[in-house]
Amino acid sequence: MYLVGVAGGSGSGKTTFAKKVINLVKEDISILHMDSYYLHEQPEKHFSAKGNPNFDHPAAFDWELLRTHLSELKRGNPIEVPVYDFVTSSRSEETITLKPTSIILFEGIFSIFDQEIRSLLDIRCFLHVDADIRIARRINRDVNERGRTLESVIAQYYETVRPMYNKFLAPQRDHADFSIGEETDIAASILSAKLKELSKIGIYDLNEASLNRSAFNFSEHQVNIPHE
């Protein structure tokens, strides 16, 4: 099976992009959201100066469980995905079963951040979108879907989201096979075609195959957007 990492800042369009790829590939493909792996209690040492949890710091996630679950999926085993409640900012006792498919898209702000997880990924993507677009999308999502106030969303952006993006998220672009701008329709078409091509020739682990990653010329599809 192929494991594809889709990273990018909050509001960059990761989930939308992943859904476009799923609609194009159509068969035997699923998605795993990194947001499901937020810790039940956030580490206080990474709280903001105002004492608020920092959900954009790498330490906000359950990395041990993520590594275990992604490894299990690569072995062809099902996993029990946690359910995170963004209204209460806590992990539910419920889980959702995810069975392995030929292609799994792993999307999240830090999906290509961890070295061990990167070694499990067959293809790594990074969505690079201008900050004004990302904050507008974040406001729309958090106010309409997560019950937040406009003031709290803006305060959080300047307090943690923007500095964490510059410090931790943006550097992930250096690890990406695909660097994607705002033309996500084109990028989704390229990625879905590449996945179909790999499936057709029967290579299911680029890290162990005799044909290495560079043989597929991922870099020729990069969309280079200037850094903020």
Can you describe what's shown?
The protein has 228 residues and is α/β, with parallel strands linked by helices. It has one domain: Rossmann fold (3-Layer(aba) Sandwich). Helix content is 36%, strand content 18%. The strands form 2 sheets. The protein has a 5-stranded parallel β-sheet, with helices on one face. A two-stranded antiparallel ribbon has the order 3-4. Strand 3 and strand 4 form a beta hairpin. Helix 1 crosses helix 6 and helix 4 crosses helix 5. The protein is globular. The relative contact order is 0.20. The C terminus is likely disordered. One of its GO terms (biological process) is UMP salvage.
Shape: globular
Instruction: Say what the CATH topology is.
Output: Rossmann fold
Give the helix proportion (percent range): 25-40%
CATH class, named Alpha Beta
Computed Rg: 17 Å
Q: Under the CATH scheme, which architecture would be assigned?
A: 3-Layer(aba) Sandwich
DSSP E strands, number: 7
Low-confidence runs of at least 5 consecutive residues: 203-228
Largest sheet: 5 strands, parallel
Structurally, the number of domains stands at 1
What string, H for helix and E for strand, traces the elements in order? EHEHEEEHEHHEH
Keywords:
alpha/beta, Rossmann fold, 5-stranded parallel beta sheet, two-stranded antiparallel sheet, 6 helices, 7 strands, disordered C terminus
